[in-house]
Write a structure and sequence with these properties.
This protein is mostly helical. The chain is built from 3 helices and 2 strands; from the N terminus they run αααββ.
């Protein structure tokens, strides 16, 4: 028997009733194992994400505090006259006709 026929016999589905039952059981076991592995992988990823989010929150707390302190209070302007984000600049009358 050559190598091609041996490989072809391995791929062929089982022909006997016992072989079909064993294949059905093994398929079910493999599906259950795959689902269990995916749930464990998802849980590990979720815990890792939560740990990273907590670490990032902890490391940026000083930056958030500095941003809160530097932010202008509502109703305050930065020293100029701003209307809708545009700066209003007054030009002296003698420069208008140049």
């Amino acid at each position: 028997m050559n190598h091609f026929h041996a490989r072809n016999n391995f791929v062929r589905p089982p022909q006997t009733l016992f072989g079909r039952i064993v294949a059905f059981i093994l398929t079910g076991v493999l599906i259950v194992l795959a689902l269990m592995f995916s749930l464990v992988a998802l849980a590990v990823a979720a815990v890792g994400g939560l740990l990273f989010a907590g670490w990032f929150w902890w490391k940026t707390r000083a930056l958030r505090k500095a941003m809160r302190e530097a932010a202008p209070m509502p109703g305050q302007t930065g020293g100029g006259d701003f209307i809708d984000g545009e700066c209003v600049r007054e030009i002296p009358d003698d420069r208008l006709l140049r």
